[in-house]
Amino acid sequence: MGVSQTDVVLRALAEPRRREILTLLAHDEVPVGRLAEAFDVSRSAVSQHLRVLEDAGLVTRRAEGTRNFYRSRPEGLIGLRAYLDETWAASLDAARRIVEGEAGVLDADGTERDSRATA
Amino acid sequence: MGVSQTDVVLRALAEPRRREILTLLAHDEVPVGRLAEAFDVSRSAVSQHLRVLEDAGLVTRRAEGTRNFYRSRPEGLIGLRAYLDETWAASLDAARRIVEGEAGVLDADGTERDSRATA
DNA sequence: CCATACCGTCAGTCTTGACTAACGGTTAGC
DNA sequence: GCTAACCGTTAGTCAAGACTGACGGTATGG
After folding, report:
1. What is residue B14's three-state secondary structure?
2. How far is the CA of B41 from the C1' of D9 (A)?
3. How confident is the model at residue B119 (pLDDT cuts 50, 70, 90)?
4. In the prediction, which pLDDT does A90 show?
5. Does the keyword Transcription apply (chains A, B) (predicted)?
6. Are the CB atoms for A94 and A104 separated by under 8 Å?
């Protein structure tokens, strides 16, 4: 309960190799072995990355015989996009208030104070 | 040159405490000392987090006397949003092709192959 | 049944990074 | 000039995680 979905997705995307994997999985459904060949790392590393991506909901798995096909899962990005939109909106709102001269700048004792020119 | 802007922003946001800091800086302009009090960590830790956020372009600094006021910078999220939109679009496009029965599933030898129903 | 192909998991190594404590630098007040 | 307040930087510690190698498990071919 201590880790939010946004946190899991963000940590998964923060790794460059996982983003490369996601790029490959964006257009095609690819088995693990093929990914390992493409990236010049061990299958084990790729498998661990895929586990992280699957736990984050960014990828789906489909077993066919002994091969596991992975595919990108766009819905996994919904939560992150929502988070970014909120932060974006909040920051823009604050910036707008600052421009209008009613910014929320706090003084040392915590009381409100008038904003000064950007200098 | 090996690190893209998307990578820097993503790594900066992947840390929970930095997201908390960003949340506080979204509405108000806050000095470092106040952030340290709010989070029950040393000023040094907060200062280092702010450095990462500033390098990522997610925060701006304004010096006033000995105090440094930090503020959220919404434009820093533009690149990340563009990246997410691209990945989102690519994945959705692939999913659409799969539904329409013309998915790009590769066989063992790399040749194209017809997609099978979703399990 | 035996060999092979494909994959996930575990143990162990090594790098990255979050944190504290101590230090130095700058500004305001007396 | 001296002191105090505020902050960035550094060295050092410790935990998280990316990676390799070895192992075991399952499905296909002979």
Report:
1. coil
2. 17
3. very low
4. 83
5. yes
6. yes
Q: Residue B31 pairs with which residues in a beta bridge?
A: B69
For residues A47-63, b (16+ Cβ closer than 10 Å) or e, as one string?
eebbebbbebbbbbeee
Q: Which CATH number fits domain B5-76: 1.20.140.10, 3.90.226.10, 1.10.150.130, 1.10.10.10?
A: 1.10.10.10
Closest CA to the C1' of C17: that residue is: B15
Flag if B84 and A84 touch (Cβ within 8 Å).
Answer: yes
Chain B residues touching residue A16 (CB < 8 angstroms): 7
Structure tokens at A93: 């709102």
Mean pLDDT by 10 residues, chain A (119 residues): 87 97 94 93 96 97 94 95 91 71 47 36
Q: Which of B26, B62, B105 sits opposite A29 (nearest CB)?
A: B105
| Predicted confidence (pLDDT) at residue B81 exceeds the cutoff of 90 | yes
B2: three-class secondary structure by DSSP: coil
In the prediction, which pLDDT does A118 show?
31
Domain ranges in chain B are: 5-76, 81-113
Q: Tell me, yes or no, if B17 comes closer than 8 A to chain A by beta carbon.
A: no
* Closest-CA residue of chain A to B73: A91
Query: Which residues contact residue B45 at a Cβ distance below 8 angstroms, ignoring those fewer than 6 apart?
Result: B17, B36
Domain A5-74: CATH class, spelled out: mainly alpha
